[in-house]
Amino acid sequence: MSTNKNAYEIRADILKEATGLVTHKYEKDMYIWESTRTRDEKTGMIMDPINQPSFPTTKEILDCANELYSFVDSK
Questions:
Q1: Who's near 73: CB < 8 A, 6+ residues apart?
Q2: pTM of the model
Q3: Is residue 27, in this structure, part of any structural domain at all?
């Protein structure tokens, strides 16, 4: 049985999807960044915290959501 979603439900689903996509990209970038850093032999701490990926902003998530929504909104 299929149910139709209203516009608010569709936008909420798209926002959730965008949040997941942007967060996944951040986690992947952070993993790559951490695995390529030089670490102190004794403490294991990263010695060169340069170009560390930043956590996604609300704007980045909304930009991704708008891009996804443009597909739904196009005819």
A1: none
A2: 0.80
A3: yes
Number of domains the chain is built from:
1
What are φ and ψ of residue 58, in 5° steps?
A: -60, -40
| Domain residue limits at 31 | 7-73
pLDDT digits (tens, 9 = 90+) for 30-74: 999 999 888 888 888 888 888 999 999 999 999 999 999 988 777
Phi, psi dihedral angles at 5 (to 5 degrees): -100, 145
Measured distance CA(74)–CA(69) in Å, rounded: 9
Answer whether 22's CB lies under 8 Å from 64's CB.
Answer: yes
